[in-house]
Write a structure and sequence with these properties.
This protein is α+β, with helices and mostly antiparallel strands. It contains 5 helices and 7 strands. The protein starts with a strand and ends with a helix.
Amino acid sequence: MSYFLVKADPDSDYGIEDLKKDGETSWDGVHNNAAILHIRAMKPGDIVYVYHSQKQKSIVGMAEVTSEPYENTDDPRRSWAVKLKYLSTLAKPITLAELKTQPDLSDFALIRIGRLSVMPVSEKHNNIIESLK
């Protein structure tokens, strides 16, 4: 099992409450080549942190990958998607500011490459994030 983080913007698109209501969704709209490579690495059973970007800038919930990655042929731009199932909403969101106080997260993609919408989470980074819940 691997861990990933996906970004969402609940103010203009889709967020953890939408995923909770829907139960499962296609996570699509990813066009960045690096993010597409990360989606293509996802496997059913992988765990995903849902991060609200823009105003909130926090990890707010958890999801599980339920499908193999697939090319999104409905999108006129090159993109890939994966199905995600809602697992939980965090009782207390983990803010980007809080993550940045952790020295061992200085090499985490969320901190280094702020615009990347899908990224892997290493076991080391996952352990730190889990300790902040």
